[in-house]
Design a protein that fits this description.
Strand content: under 5%
Helix content: over 70%
Mean pLDDT: 94
Distance between the termini: 23 Å
Oligomer: single chain
Number of strands: 0
Radius of gyration: 17 Å
C-alpha cells in the first residue's frame, strides 16, 4: 500500500538524516584519528557504515511500497577540531539522540496517517536506537571512568577497534 505524499516526504527526510549521521560519524572518526586512537576511529567508521545501512532500509521500504526515495541536502555538520575521546562520544550520543527523536516523530506521523504498514520497520528502528544510545553511552561512561589513565584509554581503544566490518548493504 502506497503511503501519502506527506508521509513519503517525512520518510525522505529520515533518509537524509541517516546519511547525515553517517557523515557525522565519519568526521568524528577523523577526530579520533587525530588523537591517535585508531580503534575508536575504526569503531566510528563502522558506525558511519551502519547509518548508511539504516538509510538503505528506509529507501527499500519506500520502494517496496511504490513510493519514491529522495536524498535531500545533507547539511554540513561542523565538528570542532581537537576533541577529546569523551567529547567525540558526547557528540556521537547527541546525534544518536537526535536520530531517535526523529524516528519517534516519524512513528507518530505514520500512526496519525493510519499507515500501519510502516510499523514493523519503525518498531525495528525504535529498538535499534535504544541499542545505539545504550552502546554509545556505555563507551562514553568507560572513557570517563578511565579519565586521564592513558593505558586504560588505549585498552578501550584496542577493544573498540575489534568491531567487525559489516559493510553498507544489509
Amino acid at each position: 500500500m502506497q503511503m501519502n505524499k506527506e508521509l513519503e516526504k517525512k520518510f525522505q527526510d529520515q533518509i537524509t538524516l541517516e546519511f547525515a549521521a553517517s557523515m557525522v560519524y565519519r568526521q568524528l572518526a577523523i577526530e579520533a584519528d587525530e588523537q591517535d586512537l585508531p580503534g575508536m576511529s575504526e569503531w566510528l567508521r563502522r558506525q558511519a557504515d551502519e547509518e548508511i545501512v539504516h538509510a538503505n532500509k528506509f529507501i527499500q521500504h519506500l520502494s517496496d511500497r511504490g513510493n519514491h526515495s529522495n536524498i535531500g541536502a545533507i547539511p554540513a555538520h561542523t565538528i570542532k577540531q581537537g576533541l577529546s575521546a569523551a567529547e567525540i562520544f558526547e557528540a556521537a550520543l547527541a546525534h544518536e539522540q537526535k536520530v531517535s527523536a526523529s524516528i519517534r516523530d516519524l512513528y507518530r506521523e505514520a500512526d496519525e496517517a493510519g499507515d500501519f504498514d510502516s510499523r514493523p520497520l519503525l518498531n525495528w528502528f525504535i529498538n535499534e536506537q535504544i541499542e545505539e544510545e545504550a552502546t554509545v553511552s556505555e563507551i562514553l561512561a568507560q572513557i570517563k571512568m578511565v579519565g586521564d589513565d592513558g593505558s586504560g584509554l588505549l585498552r578501550l581503544d584496542d577493544s573498540l577497534g575489534k568491531r567487525p566490518n559489516e559493510g553498507t548493504e544489509a
